[in-house]
């Protein structure tokens, strides 16, 4: 039996599966099939493989690292079952991979005779941008294209399907049932285009929202709609999966797939669950024991209300994340708005006061700079525009909140601004006529621009000042003569280098300039005798006159000979970073 799993990439409130991330769904699906049918020949394909095949290339995987990988068209022609995994619930901007939709994949697979199964969050719809409302027409289209649309857990359905059991597309699995699927499914990573060097594995720790269990979920969020009960995955299960992936060569992990890492194993307590730092530390200690030489060990979401209301417990948790993790880590705070009236109407997580306090606490514990050039642990802030109840004052309150963080000398790694997406099943679905994205379109654009220029830019200069050396930046894509790359991590900073560098190679990079959400960097050591003037002109302290002197006096015979041409106040930046 031949099975094709097509990964259209997923992005949800509590989980990411866009390369270089390999998400949960394809791994679990692969494992469930193998558990049911050991003889099944299961191929992992991406939406990019299909685009290359059907939009002009020869059908051979363009970034394939797997020897003798068959042509994509050949796999699909022979497949007995084709499984498509997709769904964007928190759409963003992606550097080197673009998620696919049901409509797109339907064009590619409709002509094949295989049984077609749709899994992942796509059954609720997908949004490639904010400010949209998912339509029932879109969801009906999925039911017309696919033989089965899975509304529960895809892996549970696939195990039943390949075992010949009765089928229930709404069935959910327990963590006990999941574990063999997760362990068997780890080997699909060997078919991931970036394997083994360029893959980051998302690891599930919890599903459902502890806050939603107490007082209901945020109006727009799909997490409590899909998973109304909170389940915590046992530490030993998490560590076992990490160990299998680690043995397969994976060195980058995010302990994610949760709405709040500080609420892992927490005691229910209405709006704000009571954290258990000993349980969180046990989790990260087990993970680090399973992956001792890990290169990236990060987290994802955190509820700032938990941190603010339980500061001592939260400090212990943050220290444990730092102790066992790696620098450059980010906990994303879902503030969404600083307007208390909008927050109440939409049943949001935290107040501005709680979020500010949480930002302070994380800065105190995690603000020191780590060995990769970034602070160990910083907060991120999520903002959503277009929520019901918004007025012009709403946007100003949110701006002033962010400005206070900046003015008080605190750091946030990034501010994520989205326009709300209305999904069926969420409380917002019944409030969709009150969504403000169209009515406030000009206001939204004005304040997005204002935040980017007046908050993001100076904040980025604080987080990564000129002269900062970012270690192990992987170069990913070209844009003209600029090469863009990122470190591995939860929310990696995009670095643009003003020259063409070899892709899929790591570089240490000195930060020389700042954009609104990205930075410009120069690889170090700097080859001052051979580097082009187009690159040298970016160096701090190198104006037109200094550049002319550098070019005239090359080749330099010593570092000091080069440094003496520079202003005294910048010479320290280059000490030890000059190549002759």
UniProtKB/TrEMBL annotation:
Pfam family, one: Radical_SAM
InterPro entries per record: Elp3/MiaA/NifB-like_rSAM, rSAM, rSAM_horseshoe, rSAM_sf
Superkingdom, natural source: Archaea
Domain Radical SAM core as annotated: residue spans: 195-454
Matches recorded under SMART domains: Elp3
Protein name, as recorded: Radical SAM protein
């Amino acid at each position: 039996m031949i099975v094709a799993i097509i990964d259209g990439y997923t992005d949800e409130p509590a989980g990411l599966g866009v390369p270089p991330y390999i998400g949960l769904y394809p791994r679990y699906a692969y494992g469930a099939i193998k558990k049911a049918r050991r003889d099944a020949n299961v191929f992992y394909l991406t939406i990019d493989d299909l685009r290359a095949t059907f939009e002009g290339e020869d059908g051979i995987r363009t970034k394939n690292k797997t020897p003798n990988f068959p042509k994509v068209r050949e796999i699909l022609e022979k497949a007995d079952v084709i499984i498509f995994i997709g769904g964007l619930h928190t759409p963003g901007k992606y550097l080197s991979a673009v998620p696919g939709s049901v409509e797109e994949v339907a064009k590619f697979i409709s002509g094949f005779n295989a049984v077609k199964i749709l899994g992942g969050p796509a059954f609720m719809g997908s949004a490639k941008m904010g400010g949209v409302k998912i339509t029932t027409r879109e969801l009906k289209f999925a039911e017309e294209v696919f033989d089965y649309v899975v509304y529960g857990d895809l892996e549970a359905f696939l195990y039943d399907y390949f075992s010949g059991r009765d089928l229930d597309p709404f069935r959910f699995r327990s963590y006990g049932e999941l574990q063999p699927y997760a362990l068997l499914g780890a080997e699909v990573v060997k078919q991931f285009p970036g394997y083994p060097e360029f893959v980051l594995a998302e690891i599930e720790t919890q599903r459902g929202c502890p806050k939603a269990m107490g007082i209901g979920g945020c109006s727009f969020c799909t997490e409590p709609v899909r998973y109304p009960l909170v389940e915590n995955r046992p530490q030993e299960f998490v560590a076992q999966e990490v160990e299998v992936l680690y043995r397969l060569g994976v060195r980058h992990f995010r302990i994610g797939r949760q709405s709040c890492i500080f609420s892992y194993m927490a005691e229910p307590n209405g709006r704000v669950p009571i954290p258990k730092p000993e349980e969180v530390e046990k989790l990260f200690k087990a993970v680090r024991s399973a992956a001792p030489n890990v290169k990236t060990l990060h987290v994802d979401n955190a509820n700032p209300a938990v941190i603010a209301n339980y500061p001592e417990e939260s400090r212990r948790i943050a220290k444990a994340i730092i102790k066992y993790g790696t620098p450059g880590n980010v906990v994303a705070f879902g503030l969404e708005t600083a307007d208390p009236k909008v927050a109440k109407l939409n049943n949001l997580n935290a107040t501005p006061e709680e979020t500010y306090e949480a930002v302070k606490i994380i800065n105190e514990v995690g603000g020191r700079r780590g060995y990769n050039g970034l602070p160990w642990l910083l907060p991120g802030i999520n903002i959503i525009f277009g929520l019901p109840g918004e007025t012009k004052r709403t946007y100003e309150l949110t701006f002033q909140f962010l400005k206070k963080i900046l003015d008080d000398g605190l750091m946030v790694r990034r501010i994520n601004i989205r326009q709300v997406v209305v999904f069926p099943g969420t409380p917002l679905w019944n409030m969709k006529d009150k969504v403000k994205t169209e009515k406030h379109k000009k206001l939204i654009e004005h304040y997005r621009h204002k935040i980017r220029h007046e908050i993001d830019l100076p904040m980025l200069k604080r987080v990564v000042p000129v002269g900062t050396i970012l270690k192990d930046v992987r170069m990913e894509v070209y844009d003209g003569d600029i090469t863009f790359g990122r470190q591995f991590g939860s929310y990696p900073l995009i670095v643009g280098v003003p020259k063409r560098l070899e892709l899929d190679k790591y570089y240490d990079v000195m930060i020389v300039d700042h954009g609104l959400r990205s930075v410009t960097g120069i690889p170090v050591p700097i080859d001052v005798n051979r580097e082009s003037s187009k690159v040298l002109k970016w160096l701090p302290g190198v104006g037109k006159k200094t550049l002319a002197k550098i070019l005239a006096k090359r080749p330099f015979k010593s570092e000091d000979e080069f440094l003496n041409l520079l202003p005294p106040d910048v010479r320290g930046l280059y000490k030890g970073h000059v190549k002759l």
